[in-house]
Amino acid sequence: MAGIRFKKPIFPVGAQLRQYLKATNREIDVPVTYQDLTHSNSTISLLDKKGKDTLWETMIYSESDRQFIHEALRKVYAQLKVGGDTSVIDHLFIDRVDYCLYANTHPFRIRIVNRLNDLFDYFYIKQADASRVYGMELEHLLSPNKINYLTKGDTFIEEHIQGIPGDTFIQHYLMENHEYNPLRIAKEFVKFNERSLVQLLGDMRRDNFVVEIIPDFDELHFRLRSIDFDQECYEGSSRIYMPQYFKENNPIIDLGFKTMSPVLELQYQKEERMRLRNRVVTSYGQLNSLLNTMVADTLSTPENVNQLKNELSDLYQDSIFLNCTSMGSIVKTSLHMLEKYPVRKRATKSIAV
Q1: For residue 333, how many other CB atoms are within 10 A of its CB?
Q2: What residue spans of the chain are helical by DSSP H?
Q3: What gap in Å lies between CA 105 and CA 165, rounded to an integer?
Q4: Cα Rg of the chain, angstroms
Q5: N or C: which end of the chain has fewer CB within 10 A?
Q6: Alpha-carbon span 196 to 204, nearest angstrom
Q7: Residue-level pLDDT, tens digit, the chain, 353 residues
Q8: CA–CA distances in Å: residue 314 to residues 200, 310, 353
C-alpha cells in the first residue's frame, strides 16, 4: 500500500477562490501578515512540562517589532472572535508567539491570555494554501463542526480547535482503565472515516485529529475532529483518505473489531452518508459555488488525479469517476455518490500507511 512519501507543495489561492472567500466574508483586511511574524531576532526552543522538545520555537522580537506585532495580533484576535470589536480585548495580552518547524505551512501559534482570570486561548497564522482552504470549507459545510478562519492575501488566520489530541486520547483513554462504552468510540471512528473519504480529506492519523468528550446522562459521547486540512484531495491513493488504514489508529480500530459487527458498521456508514447528503442539500448554493471553483483549480498532479479516479471507480464500482479531470471534479463526484452505499471491506489494521 502506498503512503505519503513526499511533502505536499503549497498551492496558491487563485483569483476565483479569492472571490469566493470575499463573498463569504472570509477575506478581510487584517493588520498583520505571516511575513511580519518572521522578523524575529532569535528563537528559543519550547519545551513541554516534562522538559521534552515540542519542535516549536518561541519567537524573540526587538522591542519595537514586539509592540507592533502584539498589538496587531490582539486586533486580529478581535476580528476572529467578535468581528473586530476591540472594546473586548483591553484585558487581553499576547503571552507568546511560537513557530512550528515541521508542518507544511510552518504555522505561528499565538497564545493570548486574559489578565483578569489567567485563562488563555490560541490561534494560528499560516501561509495561505488553497488545499487547506478547500478542506476547511468542506468541513464547515458538510461536517457537524463549524470552522472559523480568515484570510488576507497569502496569510491564513485560524481559530484553535479544542479537543484532546488523538495520540493523547489513545494513550490515556484506550490504554488505561477508564469507564466508557468502547462501542461509542468505535461508532464515531466509522463516521469519521466515512466523512474523510467522502470529502477526500487525507492523512487523518491520530496526530491530525482531536477527540471531544461529551458527557450525557450516565455515558460519555465522543466526536473526532480534524485539525489538519493540508492533505485535502492531493494524494493519489484512496487509502490516504480512510483513517482506518493508518497504523497509528490501530488501537481504535481494535475496538471496532471487538465491539462492532460488520452489519452494524455498515449501518453507521449509511447513517453518516445520509447526514452528509442532507448537509449537501441544505448548503447547496454555497457548496455549489465552492465546488465549481474547486473543479477549475489545480490541487494535485495529473498522475495523482488519474490514480485516485481509477481507485475510487473500483471502490464504488462505478465508472463515473473515470470522467473526472481534476481533484475538484473527483470531490464533486464523490458527493454525488452519497445516495449509493458501497459495500466495502471491514476496517483493517495497517502497517504500511
Answers
A1: 20
A2: 15-23, 34-37, 63-82, 130-142, 166-169, 182-199, 250-259, 262-282, 284-295, 302-316, 327-336
A3: 19
A4: 21
A5: N
A6: 8
A7: 446 667 899 999 999 999 999 999 999 999 999 999 999 999 999 998 888 888 899 999 999 999 999 999 999 999 999 988 888 889 999 999 999 987 777 899 999 999 999 999 999 999 999 999 999 999 999 999 999 999 999 999 999 999 999 999 998 888 776 678 889 999 999 999 999 999 999 999 999 999 999 888 788 889 999 999 999 999 999 999 999 999 999 999 998 898 899 999 999 999 999 999 999 999 999 999 999 999 999 999 999 999 999 999 999 999 999 999 999 999 999 999 997 766 555 555 554 44
A8: 16, 6, 20
With the CA atoms of 129, 8, 168 and 195 taken in that order, what torsion angle do they form, in degrees rounded to the nearest 10?
Answer: 70
Global pTM reads 0.92
SS3 240: helix
Comparing CA positions, the residue from 99, 98, 156 lying closest to residue 127 is 156
Domains of the chain by residue range = 15-159, 164-339
